[in-house]
Amino acid sequence: MNRPILLRGGRVIDPSQQLDERLDLLLVDGRVAQAGLALAVPDIAQVLDVAGMVVAPGFVDLHVHLREPGDEHKETIASGARAAVAGGFTSICAMPNTRPPIDDPAAVGFVRAEGERAGFAHVYPVGAVSV
Length: 131
Description:
The protein is an alpha/beta fold. The protein has helices at 77-86, 105-118; strands spanning 5-14, 19-28, 31-36, 46-49, 54-55, 59-64, 89-94, 122-125. The strands form two sheets. Strands 1, 2, 3, 4 and 5 form a five-stranded mixed sheet that branches. It has a three-stranded parallel sheet with strand order 6-7-8. The mean pLDDT is 93.
């Protein structure tokens, strides 16, 4: 069991809950256990003052260059998705300027499968049109 974390006074934004308020959040084992104002602090909790900061379930980056396929020496789908999660992004949109470009169903399927295999952020391929 991990030590509980109390996030004190952050601006909590969660569109799925139609929520945009200043609240305290108690996190137990990585999940929200309580939300409210002036929550009691459990004895073993780590308390973080997040006043003036945004607390959200995750962000979406609509413009990411993952470089796979073709330039894996620069970045792979897995390394880019891992970096996204480290920065608070739960979903990323992979631009199609790879070698070869993401311009057919097989390429889209490859990016989706590699994103799922990596298991970090959700990876959504942005397709290109080749004429």
